[in-house]
Amino acid sequence: MYNEKFMKKTISLARKAEALDEVPVGAVVVKDGNIVSSAYNKRESSGDATAHAEILAIRKACKKLGDFRLNGCDIYVSLEPCVMCMGAILNARLDNLYFGASITNGSISTAEIAEKANLNHNINIFGGNLGEECGILVSNYFKSKRKS
After folding, report:
1. Pairing between strand 73-79 and 96-101?
2. Residue 30 CA to chain centroid, in angstroms?
3. pLDDT (tens digit per residue) in 29-65
């Protein structure tokens, strides 16, 4: 069940990423109303193309819970996951995805892909949670990059 405090935590994490000159995205994995893991983007600082907030949070949760199957867990993300992250979310068997801002580049969203795909795991997807605040954070980050 959606809990706004977890979305607010993703925004806090996204701001940490932004302070490190990373794309401002934060993610938390939740089980039984408690945060199991949290992360923010670290691609630039780690030199790792896969160091997205979602991937890092999933890795930590798997390690902490001792299983790659995160059944009974939800993931909250400040920005709609990319295709790579959506694949990881589906492979981790998370129950629910709650995200803030949508990716609006004119193409089909990754949430739509996951909903339409014939996969061995289905996830409930809820977008637009604190979407305006999350969207402004990402938008302002990229505006500042274009000015530099």
Report:
1. parallel
2. 12
3. 999 999 999 999 999 999 999 999 999 999 999 999 9
Predicted model pTM:
0.93
Q: Which tokens belong to 58?
A: 């999933």
Q: How far apart are CA 4 and CA 86, in angstroms?
A: 21
State yes or no: is 54 an active-site residue. Answer: yes
Polymer length in residues for the chain: 148
β-bridge partners, 75: 29, 97
Q: Which of 18, 22, 54, 80 is catalytic?
A: 54
Cα separation, 88 vs 82, in Å, equals 10
